[in-house]
Every structure is written in structure tokens, then in C-alpha cells.
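Components:
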Amino acid sequence: MSENAVSFKNVTKTFGELKAINNVSLDVKKGEILSLLGENGSGKTTLMNMLSGIYFPDAGHIFINGKEEVIRSPKDAFDLGIGMVHQHFKLIDVLTTTENIVLGLKGKLNLKEAEKKIMSIAEKYGFDIDPNKKVYDMSVSEKQTVEIVKVLFRGADILILDEPTAVLTPQETEKLFKVMRNMKKDGKSIIIITHKLNEVKEISDRVAILRKGEFIGMMITAESDEQQMTDMMVGHSVKLNIERKEPQDSKPRIEVKNLSVKDSQGVYKIKDVSFTAESGEVLGIAGISGCGQKELLEAIAGLEKIDSGDVLFTEDNGTKTSLKGKSPRAVSDLGISLSFVPEDRLGMGLVGNMSLVGNMMLRSYRKGASPFVDRKAPRKLAEKVVTDLDVMTPSVDTPVRRLSGGNVQKVLLGREIATKPKVLMTAYAVRGLDINSSYTIYDLINKEKESGTAVIFVGEDLDVLLQISDRILVLCDGEVSGIVDGRKADKNTVGLMMTKKGGENNE
Amino acid sequence: MIDLVAFIPRAIQQGIPLLFGSTGETITEKSGNLNLGIPGVMYVGGICGVIGSFNYEQACGGNLNGFLAIFIPIICSLVGSLLMGLLYCFLTVSLRANQNVTGLAMTTFGVGIGNFFGGSLIKLAGADVPSIALTKTSKFFKTALPGAASTGWFGKIFLSYGFLAYTAVIIALVTSYIFKHTRMGLHLRSVGESPATADAAGINVTKYKYFSTCLGCMIAGLGGLYYVMDYASGVWSNDTFGDRGWLAIALVIFSIWKPDWGILASFLFGGLYILYLYIPTGMDHMEVKELYKMLPYIVTMVVLVITSMRNKRENQPPESLGTNYFREER
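Structure:
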């Protein structure tokens, strides 16, 4: 028996013109946790999709446990003991945990027995799982648990986790890592795709690095540091520090007073929130996803109806205007810009099927007196954004939908910054971005701050929030748990505050 | 007061074609295919049965064998509606054409085919009225259960229908059981909810879509056959089938994608459909009758509003309903 659970030998996969994976050879040992590291579009997910049967390689060989295998479908992969947990969960909302787990299996349907087996797996590795809960009632981390148990239920020995921590709180991540270590002890091989270097250091035994579809190298985690990994991944040296300058000449720009927002069912999404965002500073907003960040930004931007409370905007000359009841257009005319990157990246802010130029026009079409739109200025702006922010695109006439995630975000932020806003609100600006693009975005945000803009930055990664924000507002379930100084706070305190309403019991 | 013993059997007979149609459409929709071609499929199912039995009656000149008289029309009807189902699947699943447009085209197409062959047969039969009567075949289809006449109101309400009516109820119950308690049902539901998920779980999405849509069409086609052979006593004339196909699609929504609820719902719809005949309005107020005819549609709209207001995830349409699945689309 070979000691390699998986071996790729000279594997190549092309999509049209693009070589997504070029001649990659790579081994995964039995009973190890291997991190797969690479920038966006470096082919990590594509490579793993070939292992899990979603794509079929154009050339090359895949060996499982030392034997060459042909994996044509997800079913073939299951049969070989390979299970993949995708970044976007593949679960059916209206079914229960158990029903989702047995989906696709053969034989007579016996939910009781399946339930027993699920509970024994949960016990063995330390999962928290309720077999009769419907998926639509679950939190993100519960859904992820179901996905992992599903894979184990099928007897997988090789697990692939595609960015599993992107959506988890630090505490949930800890729990996941504990489970992963238990699985490793049990002799299972785990491949984890991630962008977060500290997690790579914490959990993995070895790191494999891909760049632009090519295998760059393998490192023993314990013998390498984050700087080396990044340099290999990007191909040149990258500075890993976010330059945070002291806020200059701060003045209150936006004052939120006792703001409450209800959703259509009358449930409070934001309750009694008060804070001040000052010019020339970055106000970070931390919180578990879906606990009011989106509603808060939308309420300020005029997209969400304010139930009670007020939002005051201070202009340069000191006059205060209430934003309550103003239309989104009136709010954005005041110089308040919202760049919200939703989970699917497009959606709010950009139109996928329109070109870069067209998307620039979304901001400028109202300008000018003639009934015809001006196409020249937006084209210039698009070209400027492309060169300034290093957007990878065939041309400015390419539909935005065809760009990769990082480039889409650059286009969105670039456009918003070009309007020279007084307030820049951005949510999940680096969601799913690789390190290089992330740091470009952080730089942009810091430059904005230096030019005196009040930046409200909703983020997921606490490490980044702590590095970039001057102050951090922590939300829990739509209420403020506290505001901390970004320079002094530490990750655990903020993590705890995210789970405790109103900051009580927080001694 | 309405005479219930007379009214209920009429309502049920009226409801049976709808039940066939809605069970078929529910099976189809559970796989994520919104087949708006059901009215056309039911029409084709009807005319194919008519063609089969017309030829059989002509061939043996009046001495019908009971088994063949039933067997031939049913097979013809099933084959006809199966071909319609295959056409729909080929267009939407394999070629990924828009489901709504394809469905509407199939309805127009099916009605056209029905009228073309119906018209031709009427010409061949050389009758004075624009219809063909297959009364001999119909007799076999209409045979009630033993005891229907001798057990009074009980027999009238429960035993007085042809075998296809009982078949419809059994199919609906079996379908409902399969949805809830078997692996096949679980897989079918998951294909309709999220084909990408089902695919990743190793379920053959294309196979399920083809299978359920074709099966659904065949069941719906039997509704057309029942209408001609039993309800209309074997008399075919063009365009009398009316809007029953659309009503069957409305029934799917009304029964919130549950075939067992569909049984009672279709009887209720059958009752609402003919209620106007039983409400005395007098000759001066014919317009009131037209208002009564709207009832099934109004009820459907009310149910749509109520179910979407209650917002319970289980009562919503299958999530991927109306969209085609393409694995490599990202």
C-alpha cells in the first residue's frame, strides 16, 4: 500500500482558452491535513473539483491510495471515499438534516437507522447536530456541520473542505479545527482550501501552493512562516502589514441616534443603535453574519425604512441634515456612498450583464442636461479604474459577470471612490478575495481615510478588522454590544462580544 | 337546496380528469419542470384513445372484446401523451429551451393535433353531427362497481364510477406515498428543489427530469381519455374539453403540491365547475351563471395569496421550478 492517499500526476484542465490547471503533480499523504493555498483563479477549487468528480481532467492521471482511478462523477468519488464540502453548501432547504445526509444513497429508505448512524458519527468526532432540524432553520455553521457529517456518513477517508472558515466566527472555527484534528487522529486525510494564513499555520501539516494553475511548491507548515507562503503564492514580495495612520482632523460626519429598523414581519433587525462615524477614520463593524450589518448600512443609505431614531449627516460647513426619510438618491447626492458586496458579489451595485462602461454609467447617467447619455466620461473612468486598480479584464466592454470575484470588487470600489464620497460604506469588501487583491482593497480604503472620508467598514475577518479599524462597533442580534478601540482590543474579546447581546455579562 | 346525492357524483366525475391532470403535473413540477403543456397533453391523450378505439370498432364491426376495447385506447392514449412528454423533455432538459414558452407552444400544438385528427375521424365516420360517438367502447369504460345500483345513496356516491376514476385516486395516493416515504421520492424532490445539490449527491438529474415529466404526461393523458370515454360517454367533438387542462395546473397550486390533498381538491373544483348548473338563477339572469363559473379560479387565487402569506417553506413551489439545469454553468 502506498502512503499517499491522493496523487495527481501531470493533470491539466482547460476551460476554452484558459488553462485553469496546467500540468499539476501533487501528493496528499494519509492522515495529514494539507492546506491548498493560492490566489483567486489559481485553480485550487478546479483541482479539487476534478478529485470530487465535478470536472474531468483533459490530461494526466489521478491515483487514489496508489491505484490509478478514473473519476467521472460525484458518485465515483463517493465510491472511492472522497468527499467534498463546497464553499456554497449543497443542501436542500426544505429537508431535514437526516434527509439531506442520505440524499443520493441507494437502498431502502430507513431514516431511523440513518439517524442512529449520524448520532454515532457526531459523538465520535465531537459534532453538534440535530438530525430533525430543517436546513432553512440552521445557522451557517450548523449547515457546514451537516455537510461534513454527510461526507463522513458515506465513509469518506479523504475530505476536501473549500474555504470552510470564511463564514464562521472565531469560536466556531475553533470548534471546526477540533473536529478536524479528531478526524486526522482517525486516519483521515483532509485537504483544506483557505486564504487565511494564520489558519494554515494553526491546522495544517503541509502547505501546497498553486499559482495561475501551476503547482509552485510544497512546504512543511512548521518550517515556514507566513511571509514565505505569501511570497510563493503571489510570486513576488508582498507587504503583509496594513498601514494604519492616526486619524487626522476628525470631525463627526454621521451621527446615528437610537436607530431601530424592523423587517416586513415586524421583527427588529436593528434595535436602538447609536454611534458616530468621524471623518478621516475607519469605523469597523463586527458581528456574526446576518445580525443587522446590512440593515444598518441600508438604513443610512436610505434603502431601508427607519422605524425610529435618526441619522444626522454633518456637512463641511457644520450644518446638520437628517437623512431620515430621504430617498436613496438624495442620500447619495450628499456624498454618502454605499458599496455593498453581497454574498453573490453582484446583485447590489453592479449589473452582471453590463460592461464595465455600462456599470460606470449607473452612477453618472443622470448628469448633463441632454436626453442622451454621455458615454465618453464613463469609458474614461472605466479605463482609469482598470489601470489604477490593476483590474484583469480583456476590455472595458466585457460584461462584469465574466470577471473573477476580486476584479468585480475592484470595479465596484473603484467606481464608488471615483465619486469622491464624504462617507464610504463598504460591506464584505474582501469577501472571497485572495491576499494580493485584499491588500489592494485595504490600501484603497486607507487612502480614502487619509483624504478625510469617513469610512464604515463591515468585515468578516476579525484579524483584518482589528488591523484596519480605528474603532470597532460590535453588533449582536441588531444591538450594539460595545465600541472598542481598534488598536487596543484583542480578537477574543471582540469574538465574545459578537455573541453577547448588549454587552451584558462581559466582565 | 341542492340534491347532494345527485350533485356529488357529478362533481366527482367532473373532478376526475382534473385529478389525473394535477397528479401528473405535480409529479412533473416536483422535478422542477413547469409543464404548461398539460392542457395540450390531456387533449392528445384523449384523441389518441379515440383514434385507437375508433379503429378497433371499425375493424371488428361491433363485436367488441371487453379487454381489448379497454386496452387499446389506454395504450394509444399513454403512447400519445408519452410522446408529448418526450418532446417537452427533449426541448427543455436536453436543449434547455425556456420552459414557459415550450409549455405554451405544446398546448397550442396538442390542441391542434387533437382537432386535426378529430376532424379527420369525423369526416371518415361521415356522421351528420360534427362528432364521433364511440358508445360501445364507452360502455366498458363506464361500467360501475357491482352493487352501485342496489345500495341506494351509498352506491351512488361511492360505487357508481368507471374503473378509471378509482385508478386516478389510487395513483394520487401512491404518488403521495412515494413522495413521502421512498428514496425515489426524496431524490425527485431534491431535483426539483436544487438540481445542483442533487447532482453533487450523485443523483442523475436528467434521468429524473425525463422520467417524472414523461410519467406525469402519461398520467395527465389518462385524464383526457377519461373525459372522452367516461364523462362524455365516448362522444368526441372538437374543442369540448375546454379549460380543464388549465384548471388542473391551478389545482397543483391549490393542493400545494400534495397529490393526496389533490384528490379532495379536485372533487371540490369539479363541484365548483358545475355549481352553476345547480343554482337556480332563472332565465332572466344568465349572467349570474357566468359569475359562478369563475369560482375555481377565484379560489385558486385566494389560496395562492394565503399560502404565500403564511410563508411556510414546505408549502412553497419547488425552488428550481421553471428553470433548466446546466451543470457547468457557474
